[in-house]
Design goal:
Helices cover about 30% and strands about 35% of the residues. It is built from two helices and eight strands, in the order αββββββββα. Strands 1-3-6-5-4-7-8-2 form an eight-stranded mixed β-sheet, with no helix packed on it. α1 packs antiparallel against α2.
Length: about 140
């Protein structure tokens, strides 16, 4: 194999992306959240082949979930005036289908943009990309 290094670099990059991806689970991530923060609502693949699902909560109202790689999901922003507490999230798979219930906790504080975990993850991916580029240039 004359160009094994570029292939290895690409595989290493994909491995890093896979390791950084969160495991599928129904509910809201991150949890807990603060007012103003973006939240991903997902069925975690529980709705199976259903092509439509909704998530409803006192926290954000009702939203339609859309198909993604691991089921159905939507991204919402918690209202700036959300009070701290636990909020029930009900995911309904299709009209009249199975329902899955989870909770999301709102804590005191305000969203501050990019979090430490996001910044570290971004820097790690940049480092992997830089290393892959360097390996490709050598070979």
């Amino acid at each position: 194999m004359p160009n094994a290094r570029p292939v290895a670099a690409v595989l290493l990059g994909l491995l890093a992306l896979g390791a950084a991806a969160p495991a599928a689970r129904a509910g809201a991530l991150p949890d807990p959240v603060v007012a103003g923060e973006r939240v991903s609502i997902s069925d975690g693949g529980r709705c199976g082949p259903a092509r439509e699902a909704t998530a409803a909560s006192e926290l954000f109202g009702a939203v339609a979930l859309r198909p993604v790689a691991r089921g159905m999901a939507a991204e919402i922003r918690v209202g700036e005036k959300a009070e701290p507490g636990r909020y029930r999230v009900t995911i309904e798979c299709g009209r009249g289908g199975a329902r899955h219930v989870d909770t999301v906790t709102v804590t005191e504080g305000r969203a501050e943009g990019v979090g430490v975990a996001q910044a570290v993850g971004g820097l790690a991916l940049l480092a992997v990309a830089g290393g892959a580029y360097r390996l490709c240039r050598r070979g």
